Predict the structure.
Amino acid sequence: SQQGEEDPQALSIQEGENATMNCSYKTSINNLQWYRQNSGRGLVHLILIRSNEREKHSGRLRVTLDTSKKSSSLLITASRAADTASYFCATDAPGSNYKLTFGKGTLLTVNP
Amino acid sequence: GAVVSQHPSRVICKSGTSVKIECRSLDFQATTMFWYRQFPKKSLMLMATSNEGSKATYEQGVEKDKFLINHASLTLSTLTVTSAHPEDSSFYICSAIGSASGSTDTQYFGPGTRLTVL
């Protein structure tokens, strides 16, 4: 079952602006990962954040995790047209043997 | 590092034929591989978990006799769609976890295979 829910479902911004996407989940987790998918392509791994971590950075990406609210956010700063893609969060639960449950995704469009 | 490949990238076949899709971890040994299916503008749905040398574990609702999975080595898993029908048309993506980059928690995904059944 899909326990992740991304918000918003679609986001359109101008180049240079920041983009924030949120993800909520329902059960306890070991890790939460964010992936990017360009249309018709595979998934590119962005960041993994563990359940005992609250924030992680990677380049222009910042991910936060609030396990009390069962939510995570992905912030992309200074967006570029090349950031246009679908973004998914995925969680794995304790004892799941790394099985990922994906959210529905946010379609981000960065207009030049 | 941590590259996963899939072959073919797209395939068109006639109804009733079988199609084999390969998933390879190119620079690491994958202890576990996963097979997902994705419908247009939808999220990924896990089909099965594949461990080297053992039978695959299928998710509820996935027909194991229709979607045959073989994980013959630590770098190769195959998905065979048997007696394919138009409703099997979809985007199939594999992922792998292993000792890539020192992380055993990160799943690395292949580029996907677009299957069209006429």
Observations:
- DSSP finds no helices and eleven strands in chain B.
- The interface with chain A takes residues 2, 4, 6, 32, 34, 42-46, 49, 91, 93, 95, 97, 103, 105-112, 114 of chain B (CB under 8 Å).
